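Same chain as my last thread, 274 residues:
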Amino acid sequence: MTQSAEKALQAPERVVSESSESAGSPGELKNAVKPVLNAIRILRYLSETGKPARAIQIARAMAINTSTCFNILRTLVSENVVAFDPLSKTYTIGFGMTKLAERSFTDSQRLGAAKPLIHDLAERFGVTATLWRRTGADRIVLVSVEYSPGGMRVHMPTGTRLPLLMGSTGRLFAAGLSEDQARSEFESLRWARPLTFDDYWAQAQEARKRGWSIDDGHFAQGIMSVAAPVLGSSGEIVFTLVSVMFRAQYDDEGIAKLGSEMLDLSHKLQEILC
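reply #2:
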C-alpha cells in the first residue's frame, strides 16, 4: 500500500457542515471523504456489472490503488454488503446490501414493483388479476387489481374486504386449519351458490396438494376464480394472487395451466412483497 493510500484509510472522518452539504451536489462536495466515495463506486460497479469480479479487476476499472481497493472490499465484506468467494477469489453484492435495499421500500413501492407481473398475467390469460392481503385474524382486503385488455371483464374495486375463508383464496387458508376450526368458520359464510362443508373441505385439501385453489361459481354466480398463495418468511400466507374470470372461460386443462403459472408467479411476488 502506498503511503498516501494508508493516510487516506487511517485519517479521521471529516465533519461536513449543513452549509457545505447544501452548497452543491455530492459530486461537487469539497469535503468529501475519498474512501467513502470509493466504497460507493465499488458497490455501484458490482451492482451494474452483475458479475463476480476480482479485486484487481475492480481496482483497474475504478482507477483505485490495488491495496486501497482490497482494504475497502475487505471492510465491505465484514459488513455483509459485499460477498467474497474464496474459491474464485471474486466479489459480488452481498446479502446485507439486498436487505438494506429491501428495507427502504414502502408497501406502495412493493406493490408498484409487483404491478407489471400481475398485469402480464391478466393480459396473457384474459382475466382480472387481483392481489389480496390478509388483515387480522379473519379478513382479507383487495390491494391491487389488473384488468385484461378485452371488452368483457370482471370489475373489482380495491379496498374490498371479505371473510378469510371466502372464495378460492379461502380454500388456501382453510387448508391450514383443523377440520373443526374450518367447519366453525364455514358456518358463518354466505354463498351465492351454496355448497356443503364436506365439498368445501375436500376442495381445501386438494388445494393443499397442488398448491392452488378454485372457486367455481360459489362466491359469485357465473364467476370462477383461481388462487395461489404468496408466503412470508415463516411460511405463512401473507398475500393471495387470484385470477377472476367468467365460468367456462377455460376447460380443465386451461385452468390447470393457469394455476401452475400463478404458482410460479407467486414465488416471484414473494421476493418482492414479503
